[in-house]
Specification:
The protein has strands at residues 4-7, 51-56, 68-75, 83-91, 94-102, 109-114, 116-118, 124-126, 130-139, 144-153, 159-161, 167-176, 180-184, 197-206, 210-219, 225-230, 235-237, 240-243, 246-251, 256-261. With 262 residues, the chain is mainly beta. Strand 18 and strand 19 (246-251) form a beta hairpin. Residues 1-24 form the signal peptide.
């Protein structure tokens, strides 16, 4: 039987750009809290859900690159600005987790959470063998959202799939010094969708820059679709081919992807 372990661990302060000096590791605190209910999740229309994207921590992380998960919220689309969130993730034979609350947030919101635990004396135990999990968000207006994310080691790999197997990016034609990647089936999307969504949205995060050509693949069934990529500012139509229910597009790495019906 798998053991589920929960902790709450916060890295205070904003993330710095890669290459900046590392900050001293803060003293984490633990705040026990009841689990978020899994009932009545994902009932809100996609266009009314927040845009959340995940990334592995980089060189700014005092515990080391890839030791933490970075949670970003840049578009709420909710009247509420207060929410609880809980992450469960597979780490070897265990299911680990952490949770936290955000009150009256201002955007963009960012939180960095360690895969592990630290004592008040600063001694840390890091969880290894992380492969992904779920992120559950519950607003104080009772809107609850739950989506999956996958975690991959970059070294030795070129293909990074989503947890549901319906999306992935191929870095065979690209270069990066990243150590880890996160693919997340985000609950919503930023701004306005460029059309009728038939697949996605998904976000992709690496902890270092990716240069060169990236191929995005998305399952669209028997629908003729165009893949759009979000570059952090706007949605861009990508040159797309569809074959045997699979849409593919090649270009620069985007922060988020969705497939829109032609």
């Amino acid at each position: 039987m798998r053991k589920i372990v929960f902790c709450s661990l916060v890295l205070s302060g904003a993330l710095l750009f890669a290459g900046c000096n590392k900050q001293a590791a803060p003293a984490p605190t633990s705040t026990p809290k009841a689990h978020i209910s899994n009932a009545n999740v994902n009932l809100e229309p996609v266009n009314q859900r927040p845009y959340v994207w995940l990334a592995p921590s980089g060189t700014e992380d005092p515990y080391g690159p890839g030791k933490s998960l970075v949670i970003n919220v840049t578009d709420l689309k909710q009247n509420s600005k207060t929410f609880d969130y809980e992450v469960e993730y597979d780490a070897g034979s265990l299911v680990q987790g952490f949770f936290d609350s955000a009150t009256n947030v201002t955007l963009p919101y960012k939180s960095t959470k360690l895969f592990g635990t630290c004592s008040t004396g600063g001694k840390c135990t890091f969880n290894t063998g992380v492969t992904g999990g779920t992120l559950t968000i519950q607003f104080d207006n009772n809107v609850t959202l739950q989506q999956e994310w996958s975690w991959s080691d970059v070294r030795g790999n070129t293909i990074f799939p989503s947890r549901d197997g319906k999306f992935g990016v191929d870095l065979s034609g690209a270069k990066t010094k990243a150590t880890n990647a996160v693919v997340y089936q985000t609950p919503g999307y930023p701004g306005t969708a460029p059309g009728e969504i038939v697949a996605g949205p998904y976000t992709v995060g690496f902890n270092a820059a990716v240069t060169g050509t990236v191929k995005a693949n998305m399952h669209v069934g028997d629908v003729q679709a165009t893949i759009y990529g979000y570059d952090g500012k706007q949605w861009n139509a990508l040159k797309t081919t569809v074959s045997n229910g699979q849409a593919s597009a090649v270009g620069d790495l985007m922060q988020a992807y969705m497939a829109v019906k032609k």
